[in-house]
Inverse folding.
């Protein structure tokens, strides 16, 4: 008979058993979180506990920042105020004309029976801090579920596209910057209308991928959103081409760009309202039953396109 | 327990609320917006390893897992990344605690360095394998900086356990 004496001290489960339990649990979390988006509720729950602690930690930092602003020279403030007034005056002419042009454009579009251009509305959010994760480029802003922010909303500042909302917490939300690795924005070259997709490289630069070596792109070209993704409004500045490597031994040119917006600056950003989904009118959708006369080739791609646009 | 193996002072037993307070304070330090400086040490890992070595029966993998989960949510990193790293570090620390406590403080710090590197390497693996961008070499400077905090940390965290030196001439021992 194998009888062990009772232990002197209560120790709980053996360390190795504990290790395998907790390690398996964390690895399951890592796997599920990196492959599926099903842990958002757990995240939101835990964030209700961590958020107050985070706010507490940020209080002294913010107080020091505010004191710095308070003590800054009053003449500098006056100068800045005068400069801003001058800038507003300079811009007012353009703004007034733009408004008139918008009305005219709308009327002409109505005459031509073209779909109305969408106007962007949004809400201003304050960037609280950069996420402390060295593997990604994300920032946290002070608007969340309470302000009806949803994941996927585009984020811009006064110069151009900053990023996209990727996760929403009760009081804050997380914005993935366009410079994050493999964050993609569909763009268009302003000079010639060439369409492509710009990807973040993770080191603060962007890359225009899959462009042939002889593509008509030059250093200094401006890239704006093409709006083909159904997320960003068309025509918002994104980046400027800064460097092109054309090597004949590769089939694609390497085109590096720098973001136009103050992506790494922490000020105020605008979270744009989600774009209205484009719905194809019912009369344009062929019935699946009467597709016999049209042939398979024509009937098949339509439902697929429709599904893409609805997403 | 003594502060070091060669010390003749006997420490008071640790108070559980002080352990909880120190871990929470480390969490607050980690939540400071220090993302611009990648060399800032991971305070939670350091304090967790300290208590796992000193009090392996009170602080262990469960605390590491919960703190890791809080760090993951606050850092918006992969869920479970910090948790796995802290659990592993806490296990190794409590496994080696009998050995490490027999060294003077400076050599203890040398034992803590690989534990802190485990914390960074586990997170590195968990992120880079699914395809995140590389963080750069300064990601591994944090543990080297943290090692220099081992001596002040040991002093600070053991401070409430020192008892006053009371000389009583009538006492036989």
């Amino acid at each position: 008979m194998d009888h062990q004496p009772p232990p002197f001290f209560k120790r709980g489960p053996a360390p190795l058993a504990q290790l395998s339990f907790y390690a398996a649990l964390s690895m399951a979390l890592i796997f599920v979180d990196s492959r599926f988006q099903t842990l958002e509720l757990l995240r939101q729950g835990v964030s209700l506990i961590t958020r107050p602690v985070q706010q507490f930690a940020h209080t002294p930092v913010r107080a020091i920042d505010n004191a710095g602003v308070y003590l800054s020279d009053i003449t500098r403030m006056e100068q800045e105020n005068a400069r801003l007034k001058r800038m507003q005056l300079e811009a007012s002419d353009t703004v007034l004309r733009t408004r008139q042009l918008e009305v005219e454009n709308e009327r002409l579009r109505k005459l031509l029976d073209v779909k109305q251009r969408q106007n962007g509305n949004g809400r201003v959010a304050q960037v609280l801090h950069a996420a402390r994760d060295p593997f990604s480029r994300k920032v946290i802003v002070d608007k969340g579920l309470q302000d009806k922010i949803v994941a996927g909303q585009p984020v811009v500042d006064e110069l151009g596209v900053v990023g996209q909302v990727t996760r929403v917490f009760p009081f804050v939300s997380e914005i993935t910057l366009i410079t994050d690795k493999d964050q993609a924005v569909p763009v268009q070259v302003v000079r010639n209308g060439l369409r492509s997709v710009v990807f973040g490289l993770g080191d603060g630069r962007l890359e225009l991928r899959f462009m042939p070596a002889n593509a008509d792109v030059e250093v200094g070209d401006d890239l704006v959103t093409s709006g083909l993704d159904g997320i960003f409004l068309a025509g918002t500045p994104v980046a400027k081409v800064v460097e092109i490597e054309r090597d004949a031994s590769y089939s694609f040119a390497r085109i590096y760009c720098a973001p136009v917006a103050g992506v790494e600056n922490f000020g105020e950003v605008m979270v744009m309202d989600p774009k209205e989904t484009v719905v194809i009118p019912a009369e344009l959708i062929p019935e699946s039953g009467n597709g016999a006369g049209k042939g398979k080739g024509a009937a098949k791609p339509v439902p697929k396109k429709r599904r893409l646009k609805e997403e | 327990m003594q502060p070091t193996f060669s010390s003749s002072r006997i420490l008071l037993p640790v108070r559980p609320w002080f352990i909880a307070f120190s871990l929470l304070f480390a969490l607050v330090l980690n939540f400071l917006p220090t993302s611009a400086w990648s060399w800032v040490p991971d305070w939670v890992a350091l304090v967790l390893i300290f208590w796992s070595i000193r009090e392996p029966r009170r602080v262990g993998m469960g605390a590491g897992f919960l703190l890791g989960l809080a760090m993951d949510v606050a850092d918006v990193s992969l869920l479970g990344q910090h948790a796995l790293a802290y659990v592993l570090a806490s296990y190794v620390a409590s496994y080696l605690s009998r050995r490490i406590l027999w060294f003077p403080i400076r050599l203890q710090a040398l034992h803590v360095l690989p534990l802190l590197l485990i914390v960074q390497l586990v997170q590195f693996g968990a992120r880079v394998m699914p395809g995140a961008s590389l963080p750069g070499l300064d990601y591994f400077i944090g543990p080297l900086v943290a090692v220099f905090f081992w001596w002040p940390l040991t002093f600070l965290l053991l401070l409430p356990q020192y008892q006053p030196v009371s000389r009583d001439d009538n006492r036989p021992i």
